[in-house]
Input
Amino acid sequence: MTSERQWRRLFPLRFRHLSGEASFKRWDWVRFDHHRPTKDKRAESCHVHEETLLVDGRLSEAERTRLLTPMIIPSGRAAEESGKSLALIRPKNSKFYYKRRNASDIEEAQEAYRYAARQTSMFDKELAELQPSPYEFRFKFEDGAGTHDYECGDWETHTMFWNGCRRQSETETLNWMSQTYNEEYPSRGMAFAIGNMAKRPQTWQLLGVIRFNEAAQGELLF
Output
């Protein structure tokens, strides 16, 4: 997202290969050159020139709230009706849960990584060999258009699982994730970044779980 609150869908980005001034995290401002993709017609999509990436600052917690609060809309349907392919919503009555994947599900996820690796200008060997988590992470929630049940496509959620398993047992990690997404985040302020699919624009997905505070009444938004 830009400082003018314009959505940007960035690809292809090989995050594991970025280093130094090009290595960025959530809430970093980044500068980069890009061009319009030839196959993806969604207005927000940008084909990034990786070699031009440069971190140029970081948003404080207060700045996150001021920037993102005006971006909140009622639902993905509302975004679709306005011609948008990305949206930020505040889910209601959200419930994080997980399901163990069977062998075929894991192989399907692995093939998705291999496919994504082939889409980069330089084959991403690390992505192709990335091990999917043994669980499918999902959220049930309500928005202005009704009730939904989305698989969580946020890479940080799967990274959270693997990092947790390095410190503690799998059961403890899953309990920690449930507490984070079902108690801590909703109580402090949680939003979902959702987006539709290029080939199936009527299908919306959960792309990111974002923790930022609710704006206080009367708070000035820039």
